[in-house]
């Protein structure tokens, strides 16, 4: 479990106090909800599609080592080169060395959460390689010097007025008209595609039997990133593989509707190996980097393993009341929301707060929305249990100790009832103390009298009522 390097509580408090960002987030999430529901309603057989996709994802986990061996052989046969990276630092170093050895000075990138996970942009910059994001949302936040706040919509937290001001500052051109704003970004990016020495993409699905990297998008930037530059580097995590094109189709049945509310994305790019003899376009070199970063340990974990079925659609984020309230940046890790609270806690070198699993209301909305059949609340509960066993949570550890000794528990509860009415004053006097922190952002319901005492009073009232009833 990763060490705590980010304070989710403080970051959440700051996010909750930012009314403008919350209003932007609310509006964006409502739009995504409406799009997804319209798409699902248009598919009477969505439940059947979902069942097929869940079966494919389960089959992938059941035979993952064999599929990866098949994938390596297929990519190699298609003229590509496969690299395996054990952790984030190894993956970023591998790609950086690969590009440096080939004299790459400019790389265009498609949106890839895995590249965020390994800190690729920072590693490339340190090696003197300019990495330019080509997804519009990712490009906006790169210009702003920020990180994505949503795994699908990285600039979900930014209003068009903020983007307009950004473009005025960076390009000297501005507008609040969406098509015109897109043109401004496109004018800047097109020259990058033509000048780039390498293109770096992620992978939504990778097919073992053909070695095909499948990427979904709506802007066309991924197609240009993977085909214009002479070198194509595709980055995937090991669980993204499926056995066949038919299995890929089953996942495609549910991914766009669950993610963006589309039946299919505008562009579906399939990259298989490098350019062959006689072909006029495509990269001359194709590299596939397969990242583990703790996922093999997840695969061997019988309880947490289902999180590897995740298809990165973002459906769980969009229905999570915690994510909707604080946004993605509060999590401090690449993967926010319910899926991120599970995944980030077990990845190697993951940033974020190890207490993230406690940021869950257990409403179950994420499990209901997940098209891959992941029961997030169960997994989050398991992570909480493991943290409690490690003894990292002082409050939980103290409660457990008291609960094992009824007399001590009773005495502590009696003391707590005497100070209960004064808790607000205690919090006001010491806002950064334990009580102040506990009451920050929540209302304490107050402690009731012990049930044993209330039961005696209830029993007396019941006896009196029965006596009166008997006389009548």
Q: What does this protein structure show overall?
A:
- The protein is an alpha/beta fold and 472 residues long.
- The chain is built from 24 helices and ten strands.
- The strands form two sheets. A six-stranded parallel beta sheet has the order 1-10-7-4-2-3, sandwiched between helices.
- Strand 5 and strand 6 form a beta hairpin.
- Helix 9 packs across helix 10.
Q: Which key terms come to mind for this protein?
A:
single chain, alpha/beta, 24 helices, 10 strands, 54% helix
Task: Write a short abstract of this structure.
With 472 residues, this protein is α/β, with parallel strands linked by helices.
Radius of gyration: 26 Å
The strand line-up of the biggest sheet is: 1-10-7-4-2-3
Query: Roughly how much helix do the residues carry, as a percent range?
Result: 40-55%
Count the DSSP helices: 24
**Number of extended strands:** 10
Share in β-strands: 5-15%
Determine the N-to-C terminus distance. Answer: 67 Å
Shape: elongated
Question: Which stretches are low in confidence, meaning pLDDT under 50 for 5 or more residues running?
Answer: none
List the helices and strands and how they pair.
Elements: H1 8-17, H2 19-41, H3 46-62, H4 64-77, E1 81-85, H5 88-101, E2 106-109, H6 113-117, H7 120-126, E3 130-133, H8 136-144, H9 160-171, H10 178-195, E4 198-201, E5 205-207, E6 212-217, H11 221-227, E7 231-237, E8 241-242, H12 245-252, H13 255-259, E9 267-272, E10 285-291, H14 295-299, H15 315-319, H16 321-326, H17 337-346, H18 365-369, H19 376-390, H20 394-403, H21 406-419, H22 423-429, H23 434-439, H24 451-471
Parallel strand pairs: 1-10, 2-3, 2-4, 4-7, 5-8, 7-10
Antiparallel strand pairs: 5-6, 6-9
Helix pairs in contact: 3-12, 9-10, 17-19
């Amino acid at each position: 479990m990763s060490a705590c390097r980010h304070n989710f509580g403080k970051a959440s408090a700051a996010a909750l106090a930012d009314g403008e960002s919350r209003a932007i987030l609310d509006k964006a999430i409502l739009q995504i909800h409406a799009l997804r529901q319209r798409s699902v309603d248009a598919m009477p057989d969505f439940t059947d599609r979902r069942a097929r996709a869940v079966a494919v994802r389960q089959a992938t986990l059941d035979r993952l080592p064999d599929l990866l061996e098949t994938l390596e052989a297929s990519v190699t046969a298609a003229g590509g080169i496969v690299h395996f990276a054990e952790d984030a630092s190894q993956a970023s170093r591998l790609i950086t060395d690969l590009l440096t050895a080939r004299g790459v000075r400019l790389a265009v990138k498609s949106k890839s959460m895995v590249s965020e996970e390994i800190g690729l942009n920072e590693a490339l910059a340190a090696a003197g390689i300019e990495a330019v994001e080509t997804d519009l949302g990712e490009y906006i936040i790169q210009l702003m010097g920020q990180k994505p706040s949503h795994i699908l919509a990285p600039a979900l937290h930014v209003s068009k007025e903020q983007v307009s001001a950004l473009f005025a500052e960076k390009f000297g051109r501005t507008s609040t008209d969406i098509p015109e704003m897109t043109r401004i970004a496109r004018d800047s990016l097109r020259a990058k595609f033509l000048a780039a020495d390498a293109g770096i993409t992620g992978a939504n699905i990778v097919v073992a039997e053909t070695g095909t990297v499948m990427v979904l998008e709506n802007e066309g930037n991924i197609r240009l990133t993977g085909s214009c530059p002479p070198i194509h580097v595709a980055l995937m995590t090991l669980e993204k593989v499926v056995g066949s094109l038919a299995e890929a189709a089953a996942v495609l049945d549910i991914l766009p509707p669950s993610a963006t509310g589309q039946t299919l994305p505008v562009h579906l790019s399939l990259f298989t190996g490098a350019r062959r003899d006689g072909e006029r376009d495509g990269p001359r070199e194709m590299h596939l980097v397969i990242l583990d970063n703790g996922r093999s340990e997840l695969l061997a974990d019988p309880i947490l393993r289902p999180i590897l079925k995740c298809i990165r659609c973002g459906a769980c984020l969009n229905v999570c009341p915690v994510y909707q309230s604080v946004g993605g940046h509060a999590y401090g890790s690449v993967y926010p929301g319910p899926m991120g609270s599970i995944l980030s806690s077990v990845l190697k070198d993951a940033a974020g707060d190890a207490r993230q699993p406690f940021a869950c209301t257990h409403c179950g909305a994420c499990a209901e929305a997940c098209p891959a059949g992941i029961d997030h609340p169960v997994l989050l509960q398991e992570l909480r249990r493991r943290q409690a066993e490690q003894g990292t949570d002082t409050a939980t550890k103290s409660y457990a100790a008291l609960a094992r000794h009824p007399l001590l528990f009773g005495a502590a509860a009696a003391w707590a009832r005497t100070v209960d009415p004064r808790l607000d004053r205690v919090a006001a006097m010491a806002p950064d103390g334990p009580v102040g922190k506990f009451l920050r952002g929540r209302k304490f319901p107050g402690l009731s009298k012990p049930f044993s005492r209330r039961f005696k009073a209830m029993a007396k009232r019941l006896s009196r009522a029965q006596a009166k009833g008997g006389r009548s």
